[in-house]
Each structure stands twice: as structure tokens, then as C-alpha cells.
Predict the structure of TetR family transcriptional regulator.
Amino acid sequence: MSHSLGVRQAQKQKTRQALLDAALGLLEEQSLSSLGLREVTRVVGIAPTAFYRHFRDMGELGVALVEEALGSLHAMVRAILAEQDGAEERIDRTVAVVEQHVRRYPLHIRFVARERHGGVRAVRQAIADEMGRFAEEVAAALKSQPVSEGWRDDDVRMLAELYVDRLVTTAAALLDADADGAEGAAGQVVQVARRQLRLISIGRRHWREEGRGE
């Protein structure tokens, strides 16, 4: 009996992942609000009613895609920021991680970039929540660095949000550069991202006492 349950559970998980993959492929050229579940189930080869065994609606599927798209990036960037190497080395490695993530998961990144301000409220909120958690994790890593000594928590959080916003913007810009196909466009995006993050880092080191609200 337990073996049969295990087989059914594995099949259910396989079908759920197939729905996510199918939706992601279809979303390359359209928004989630315009995508119907019948389109998704047609690709997977299941009846439309079977969709509801896995998701309540397309919004819930979209939330699962957000978690799939952003969840793995948190730990990678947090680990880099926690290292005690110089600021420039951390910046270079962080940008490289983002670039690698975009190359590996372009459809996920495109989905997040499009739906961040899209028409499905649950997905917008899920993206905002993930970005918030991302900022909290980055803030914790920044707080542990000596240069943050004496900083207020809300200022560290503000700094973390600047970093996170730049990383997300860079990911979207890399996708656009790839779509344009112009020679050297992606390299230019990476170079600009590094300079922007270094500028933020310099500002951090010279943050005045009155700027900290003390």
C-alpha cells in the first residue's frame, strides 16, 4: 500500500512540474493574466479539470513559479556577501552569480521581470515578498561586516534594498541584451552593474554620522 502511495505521489509531483514547465514556456511571449489553464493543460496532455488537483488557479501556479525562480538565488548571493574578502571581489562574484543565473534560467527571470508589475495581484505580492526576504538576508550579511558598525538597522536594510534592486535590474537588462543580440551588449550590462555596485559601496564607506539618523 505504501509503495502505491509513493508511486502516485511521485506521478502527481511529475505532473505538477510539467504544468509549471509548460506555463513557463508559454509565458515567454505573453503575460500570466492572458494565459488560460486550458492552454497549459493542452501542452501537458491532461484534462483541464486535472489542473485543480495541483493548483487552485493560475495565480497559485504563478506564485509557485516565483518561488522556483528566486528561491535558489538567495542562498548564493547571501553566501558571497557573508565572505570577508574585499568589496570589489564580492561585487564581481555577485554580478557573476547573477549573470550565470540568467543564463541558466532565462525564462524564470523573464517571467519575474514581466510579472513584477503585472496584472495578477497574488504574483505581484509573491515577488514583493521574495524581494523582501532577499533584502532581509542581504541586510543580515551586511550587518555582520565591520564597515556596518554603528549603523541603524533600518539604514542597513535600506542599503540591502539598493543592492537587491540593482541585481534584479541587472538580470532584466541582461535578458534584454541577449534579445537585442548586439555584440558586446551583455558585457556592457555587466560592466555597468559592477560600477553601480561599487558606487553604492563607496557611498557606504563614506556614510556620514548625520546620515545614519544619529
The chain has a mean pLDDT of 88. The CA atoms of residues 27 and 48 lie 18 Å apart. The first helix runs from residue 2 to 26.
